[in-house]
Design brief:
The protein has helices at residues 43-46, 50-58, 63-75, 116-135; strands spanning 14-18, 33-38, 79-84, 93-100, 106-111, 154-157, 160-163. The chain is of the alpha+beta class. The model has no long low-confidence stretch (mean pLDDT 89).
């Protein structure tokens, strides 16, 4: 949540990206990643702006007060997606499950694992995000980044909680 409006929800979904974390000597220590700067507010992670309106309705706002609150909140939403390189691992694969669909066809069984190399990239990206938010004037209490410990992409690494939300994979599957 930026301190001043950035007016998302206008134009393309992604306006730009930061590619500087894909190359360099640090690649020997952690995975590469890129940062996508989204122009869709918090639509992908939270369902905004509909979820923003629902939040304020649940707080009892109506009419002009609701419109003003949604306009203020939604105009200051910024989304950065950290797209992480994930090394191919023999433990990450798609095989056939014992479960079958209604036609008797085996359903896919997806196994996905993260290497320490990739996990170190996650850890660095969270630190980079905190630095970027600070430069943008985002106060720690306004950082709505959340980790859902019940979600399939949740994991803990070196005492910190993380969550990945898959939107694609740069090397297949």
């Amino acid at each position: 949540m930026t301190p001043a409006p950035v007016y998302p929800f206008r134009g393309p979904l992604a306006t730009s990206g930061i590619e500087n974390f894909r190359d360099g000597a640090l690649r020997s220590q952690r995975s590469a990643y890129r940062i996508e700067i989204g122009n869709d507010g918090w639509s992908w992670p939270t369902g905004a702006p509909q979820s923003t309106a629902a939040m304020f309705v649940a707080q009892g706002l109506m009419g002009g007060a609701l419109r003003a609150a949604v306009a203020d909140h939604a105009s200051r939403q910024i989304r950065m997606a950290f797209e992480m390189e994930s090394l191919p691992l023999s433990s990450s694969r798609v095989t056939l499950s014992d479960l079958k669909d209604k036609l008797g066809v085996p359903r896919p069984k997806i196994a996905y694992d993260l290497s320490p190399y990739t996990l170190d990239g996650f850890a660095e990206s969270v630190d980079v995000a905190a630095q970027m938010f600070a430069l943008l004037g985002v106060k720690p209490g306004d950082n709505y980044t959340s980790v859902d410990k019940t979600a399939p992409g949740y994991f803990s690494y070196k005492g910190k909680d993380y969550q990945y939300r898959g939107a694609g994979h740069v090397i297949g599957t």
